[in-house]
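My convention is simple: the sequence line spells out the residues, with the fold written below as integer tokens. I include a record here:
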Amino acid sequence: MADSPNTSHPTYFDRVERVRAHIRANLDEDLDLDVIAEVACLSRFHWHRIYQAMTGETAAQTVRRLRLARAAEDLAHTSRPLAQIAERAGYASQSAFTRAFAAAHGLAPAAFRIAGMHAALQQAISEDNAMAFNIDIRTLPVRPAVGLLHKGAFNEIGDAFERLFGLLGAHGLTPHVRSPFGRYREGPDGVPVDELRSHACAFTDIRIEPPSPLEAFDAGGGTYAVLTYKGPYSAMKPAYDWLFGVWLPNSGREPRDEHVLEINLNTPMDSPPSELLTEICLPLED
């Protein structure tokens, strides 16, 4: 989950979104303040203040956060050498990368690779251990929600969350927002990336009529198997692989034809990536 811009001016919101999209699409490129100011069509002097006021972080901090998040994904899901990951994250030395990564994620890169929850999940998958993690069978209430469609890779849904909260803030709806969550219809395996569809969402305290392209709907209702995942969003894939590939076949339960929900118990705004807690909610037949 990403930060919630504090703004009521859609025009400036559009400029922020344009810059964020440019940063995400060009993480390997030179992203100095002059380049970003040009994307926003504002002077460097003014843009720096506007961006920070609206997002809660500087553009340089956004770049650093996204590069370190990608590094965590590389560490969890690839065998790339640390030196290569450090260079890809924009650090001239491995020692500088180690300090920055440890400060952001709570663990040094090498320790994160072998000791994060993703590693324990991967071991449980290899051992076909359906009892490795606690699953809470829970009835979730139906709650009003609002969401924004995301097209493409699930690990890029952060961009949709940023836009969701930006739009809610721009239209004065933030006071009605409660916990954020993701909504996923199908798994990513076997589906072309450009055909994947998901929603960046937030529960609301009342039913609202949001502006387009936001959608209002009800979420929850019925029985769910809930796995609480601890760690960065970018390293979450093994949690799904274990839940669907190991626990579910051994559980004697049948999945219900509803969206999987990812409910965020905290956010990157108040917790480091290593402490993020996410409830992965798999709908079950009663």
